[in-house]
Design brief:
By secondary structure, the protein is of the alpha/beta class. The protein is built from seven helices and seven strands. Helix 2 packs antiparallel against helix 7 and helix 3 packs across helix 4.
């Protein structure tokens, strides 16, 4: 049976879902993208590529889809400290060509995670060689990625031979089960359980981080809405004030025109009265 590849997978969710997979040496394995693909379809496509140890994204707050994909594989979730910029993505992916921006973003996420963990992955390989447990390197890497101390995990994988016998009560002899090996197996089980709990805790923390961001965005949106309402009210009040001024100016202008018209009429009437009086006076002298 062919051994399945252990992978670091970058995921880019959205209207077009995409992933890009790399092995633990940083070598490209495959990429995939599809418009209107559901999470189940995305998970199935990743599963065909191999077994992801890390699911990564290109933003500091993992989207819900990415968290759930990591949970589907019980993989470690990786998010960068800051959202990846376009320039950094281009540098990270400069050796490869991708069919669209979604696969490129996914590849940048995976490669960012690979470079972040590369030294630790190489250290696991070195320790595995030194202790002659190269066959267990993938299991060691999975434990190390989850925060288990490499040396502690490696010790539990070393095979120990039985070196003693004790007499049985009936006088015969029997070989005891290797207590040391059983202890090592128990240690491996406990380390594995610790690793699973840490990965689950990481995902829960990521979910909480996303929820806090959504809450902040909602509060910010509400605040912006309130600010907008305040600005609208201020604008409406200013419009009303200006309209009142315009009405007052118009009223004043109308009054001024009426006053001038009346004054002109009065002058004209006075002139007419004067002319009539002068005419009457001149007739008396005739």
């Amino acid at each position: 049976m062919e051994k399945r590849k252990r992978l670091i997978v970058g995921v880019d969710p959205g209207t077009t879902s995409a992933f890009a997979a790399f092995d633990l040496q940083g070598r490209f394995v495959s990429s995939w993208s599809r418009r209107d693909a559901g999470r189940e379809e995305l998970v199935a496509a990743i599963r065909e590529a191999g077994d992801p140890l890390i699911i990564a994204c290109d933003v500091s707050v993992a989207p819900d889809t990415v968290v759930k994909v990591a949970a589907a594989f019980n993989a470690k979730l990786f998010t960068p400290r800051d959202d990846l910029k376009e320039a950094e993505k281009k540098v990270l992916t400069s050796r490869w060509k991708f069919v669209n921006i979604h696969e490129l973003d996914a590849a940048a996420s995976a490669l960012k995670a690979f470079h972040f963990h590369e030294n630790m992955l190489r250290k696991v390989e070195r320790i595995a060689r030194e202790k002659k447990i190269e066959a267990k390197v993938a299991e060691l890497q999975a434990l190390a990625l989850s925060g288990v101390r490499i040396e502690e995990a490696a010790e539990s994988f070393i095979e120990r031979k039985l070196e003693y016998e004790i007499p049985e009560k009936g006088g015969g002899e029997r070989r005891l089960a290797d207590e040391s090996a059983r202890k090592d197996e128990k240690i491996r089980e406990l380390l594995g359980a610790v690793a699973e709990l840490r990965k689950a805790l990481e995902r829960k923390e990521a979910e909480g981080k996303e929820l806090r961001q959504k809450l902040q965005n909602a509060e910010k949106g509400t605040l912006e809405h309130v600010k907008k309402d305040v600005e609208i009210r201020k604008r409406d009040a200013e419009i009303l004030r200006l309209r009142n001024i315009i009405f007052k100016v118009k009223d004043a202008r109308r009054l001024e025109l009426q006053t001038k018209a009346k004054a002109r009429e009065d002058r004209e009437r006075l002139d007419l009265d004067r002319i009539v009086e002068e005419h009457r006076a001149s007739r008396k002298h005739l």
